[in-house]
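Researcher: Structure for this, please.
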Amino acid sequence: MSTGINRRSVLKAAAAMGALTLSGTGQIFPAFAQEATPKRGGHFKIGMGLGSTADSIDPATWNNEYMAMLGNTVHGYLTEVGTDGHPVGGLAESWEATPDAKTWMFKLRQGVEFHNAKSLSADDVVASLNHHRGEGSASAAAFIANSIDQIRADGSGKVVITLKHGVADLPFLLSDYHLPIMPAKDGKADISGVGAGGYVLEKIDFGVKATATRFKNYWKSDAAWFDSVEALVILDATARTNALTTGQTHVLQRCSLATVHLLERNKNLQITSIAGPQHNTLPMFCDVAPFDNVDVRLALKYAIDRQQLLNTLLNGYGEVGNDHPIPSSDRFFAKELPQREFDPEKAKFHLNKAGLSNLKVSLSASNFAFEGAVDAALIYQQNAAKAGITIDVVREPNDGYYDNVWMKKPFCVAQWGGRATPDWMFSQVYAADAAWNDTHWKNPRFNSLLSTARAELDDSKRLEMYVEMQGLCRDDGGVIVPLFTKFVNALSKNVGHGKIGSNWDLDGFRCAERWWFTDV
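Model: Predicted structure, token format:
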């Protein structure tokens, strides 16, 4: 069974493998096309709400939306997720797999050139994926790369990947923003920033801004419309808003939901609100007291008023979560799982089961994690007090939050953009050995189901397993998932685009490639 770059063949093959999974978004978002025919030209400026001085050009280290967007601007990937949520060909024009989904052959696109004039070959793919492999790999994509048993070049134009176990979602996984294809140099991946994407990286000042110019030999003739791109790190929401309204930027990422109604009145702007798998979390270390007691974890989960947070913080731009990371629009969503509600009495019940009459914990928070995170922590503090739980809200600095607080402090706030498939999300964050297991949760039953479901070709069986896994996260896991949030951004009126992808923010992090100016 094989897939090509056309949509019909991609869908046919994915369905045959049981691999076709929506991106958790369905078709519930509008298309915001301003003009049918894109135009070339102009200097495109984006004001980003994330980015850090601790960032690195090495894709194995990327852990925020700024570097993910920059990666998709500068680099090419074997596969991409289209605006309809399905995998499409990138640097690989087609692929085929054995019936057990263990061996995959990717046929590379001809005529692809890196920014240093080197032609794409299979050796580049092998070196790029091997960059994330190996015992002790600290790469955020190690869970993908280490599932590879063997990877080899079959001539210059084909790559054969043999996996340790069947992975039906491999075409989705290879679109991960940590896995760009970089030129090989002495058998190793060149991580200096040379890519095969639509724009050549000119300069980057980490935590401040990056600039890139259009690559004249880009293999896509119908993409990368701007002459140049500038991505600025503007952590403060008010400053980002002012930059947009005064014409200093063309895109305001992460609109302040408290003031977005004011932007809606501005005739020179357009608001995009895209439902996707993005969600806010409160992870706690399951191997650190008192969170190592499941009843303490349940008490904390019952002590948060999700509906109040939705009404107060999101102004309706989202929905309540149920302490697992799968959105309600995903076809594997556990819709029969009862929604957890704010219940101080149940919280007290679980405290008593843990042998406690009251509880005091510290919660680290910063608005860098997500807009309104500190307010969310303070509201939670008030909610929890009704259950005899004292929450000490520790306000952490914005800069370096995900390097110094997340996965360092035992109870904090965080945000996830979500992933295109349940297996991807679970494997990267909830598996016992996941690089980003930010709760240190290790549930044997969950991990057994994860391994089995990953290679299962029968969708009905996969559904049963994913439903049980969501229940395990909800009732045993170490994360509180109070809210799923929409991607809400503001654009200058002269920014044109078609249907906006929702697998990630900013059109799947491909806004620089897919958007254009209407008045150039």
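Researcher: Any notable elements?
Model: The longest strand covers residues 199-205. Residues 1-35 have pLDDT under 50 and may be disordered.
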